[in-house]
Specification:
The protein is α/β, with parallel strands linked by helices and about 260 residues long. The protein has helices spanning about 5-25, 30-35, 35-40, 60-70, 85-90, 100-105, 115-130, 145-150, 150-160, 160-170, 185-190, 205-220, 250-255; strands at about 50-55, 75-80, 95-100, 110-115, 135-140, 175, 200-205, 225-230. It has an 8-stranded mixed β-sheet, sandwiched between helices. α4 packs parallel to α11 and α9 packs across α10 (about 160-170). The protein is globular, with a radius of gyration of 23 Å. Bound molecules: NADP nicotinamide-adenine-dinucleotide phosphate. NADP nicotinamide-adenine-dinucleotide phosphate (NAP) binds near residues 58, 61 and 101. NADP nicotinamide-adenine-dinucleotide phosphate binds near residues 79 and 184.
Length: about 260
């Protein structure tokens, strides 16, 4: 028997002895025989999941919220009428809860903005500093003429598109645009698609916020693709070549032709 092998045996014996003592002390011998504790000891402690506050819980907010919950994130859904979204939280189970906009902003380490574009102005004015203190604000919102009005769409264009306009409405926030042009009808079914994941083009200026957004999007079952800074957010709206479902490779090819 080699020295290393012997050391290994000795080490194992020591470890076994320590574990037996622990089991006797804890009175958990039966569990160990069943293999339960062995398995539990082998599992690293799960990292504490990031809490997400969703501002908006309509068609897209509830679809994305479902994906956050499925990925293991605690989510507080909010709107101006939180009682109306209680059935959503009840359907999604114990990781989901409902609150006011104030409560969701206080709860979330990450905030998801999924409201009509016009609401961003009001929310930015009421909660700007709180939002700016978060490492990530995921901006799903689009300026849509038939809902938000031609004036809003024109103003957004004048700012250089939806990414730069959102940064004006939420000053100091670490914004990443994402999921702007995948329909709420499809996004839940698109998650974890095999054999090729659906890509999610994202745009942002803050490296830490981008890294956090990428981590969350991967856990949701998509392949994030950074297409550029917030200035590229003008392409992350419905109706552009990046809209709807593409693989990450397709997104990279399309984005290479956009400026
Ligand atoms: N639908 C899609 O497939 C899709 C896809 C990609 C991106 N988006 C974008 O996502 C955003 C939401 O779209 P949606 O289709 O989910 O709209 P929606 O179904 O009308 O939901 C809007 C949500 O925002 C809340 N809300 C509105 N004004 C608010 C305010 N001032 N403060 C707080 N909450 C407010 C609404 O609740 P209360 O009225 O009760 O407050 C509701 O929960 C839009 O910007 C849209 O362009 C949508």
């Amino acid at each position: 028997m080699g020295l290393n092998e012997e050391r290994g045996r000795t080490g194992r014996h020591d470890a076994d002895r320590g574990r037996r003592t622990f089991l006797q002390l804890a009175g958990l011998g039966g569990l160990a025989l069943a293999g339960g504790l062995d398995r539990a000891l082998a599992q690293p402690a799960p990292a504490s999941p990031i809490k997400i506050g969703s501002i908006g819980a309509g068609r897209m907010g509830s679809a994305l919220g479902e994906l956050f919950v499925k990925a293991g994130y605690p989510v507080m859904f909010s709107s101006r009428h939180p009682d109306e979204i209680k059935p959503l939280a009840a359907r999604l189970g114990p990781l989901a809860q409902v609150g006011t906009v104030d409560q969701a902003i206080a709860f979330g380490e990450v905030i998801v903005m999924v409201v009509p574009y016009t609401a961003l102005d009001e929310i930015g004015k009421a909660h700007g500093p709180a939002l700016a203190s978060k490492p990530l604000v995921l901006d799903i919102c689009n300026p849509i003429a038939r809902r938000d009005g031609d004036g809003v769409v024109k103003w957004v264009d004048e700012q250089g598109g939806a990414g730069l306009a959102s940064a004006k409405l939420l000053p100091g926030s670490h914004i990443v645009r994402a999921f702007n042009a995948i329909s709420y009808r499809k996004v839940v079914g698109d998650a974890h698609r095999a054999p090729t994941l659906v890509g999610v083009p994202i745009a942002g200026d803050d490296k830490k916020a981008i890294a956090l957004a990428e981590e969350i999007i991967r856990k949701m079952g998509f392949d994030p693709v950074l297409v550029g800074g917030l200035a590229m957010g003008k392409y992350l709206v419905p109706g552009t070549p990046l809209a709807e479902e593409h693989s990450a490779e397709e997104i990279r090819k399309i984005a290479a032709g956009l400026h």
